[in-house]
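Project channel, design review

CF: Before we commit to the Capsicum baccatum constructs, I'd like one complete example in the thread so the newer folks can see what an input/output pair looks like. Taking Delta(3)-Delta(2)-enoyl-CoA isomerase.
RD: sounds good, go ahead.
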Amino acid sequence: MCSLEKKGNVFLLTLTGTDDHRLHPDLIDSISAALRRVRSESTSSSALITTAEGKYFSNGYDLKWAFVDIARQQLMSRKLRRLVSDLITLPMPTIAAVTGHASAAGFVFVLCHDYILMRKDRGFLYMSELDIGFPIPIWFSALVKCKIGSPAVWREVVMKAAKVTGEVGVKMGIVDSVYAGVEETLEAAIKLGEELVRRNWDGKVYAGCRKTLYVELLNKLGSDETVGDYGDDEANKTLSKL
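CF: and here is what came back for Delta(3)-Delta(2)-enoyl-CoA isomerase:
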């Protein structure tokens, strides 16, 4: 599912295997467990890098599994929203080293990181919902608006379902930097992580600043109207305390 390594004070979380890393509840649980380890093993100044093996960073929700019934759709949505909350409240800088395609919920997962680094020879970011005939939930929209500054880019990403390469992503203000290939992207991510660790920021203060920036997103995570998921009281109570 995923592995977790620690290089000094930099954690490297890798989605393992050569499949398309669809966000099935089992994979989400594996990532969430890794983030709990990161929280428990982190020092006062740490950083997290998330990357993936193979052609895909993540190809989004596991729709084949989810569309058996509404309960599965609701479960998958709840787990992803909790994962997003975990990332937004993580007490350290976060970096996505995107070395393959990231589509739909996979793109959302990428956007939850503070920094996005991509390889320029392959891979794209793709909000595919329009092409496959599904509306995006309000919380997806809140994330896009928090992380992408231009309404013109919102239109390209959401209303045109553009496949955004690394170099185009830099021009759009979505991607921070691009590199020749997998090794170069990971090396740059580790270098950035080490630079951020050296700033010796207080992790709780860092997370508090991030939560303030993304308060609109956090306020929307309690429900997902696209699957009729309004009744998870325990999740709502947890999110309301953020």
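RD: helpful, thanks. Residues 70-88 form the longest helix (19 residues).
CF: The chain has one domain: 2-240.
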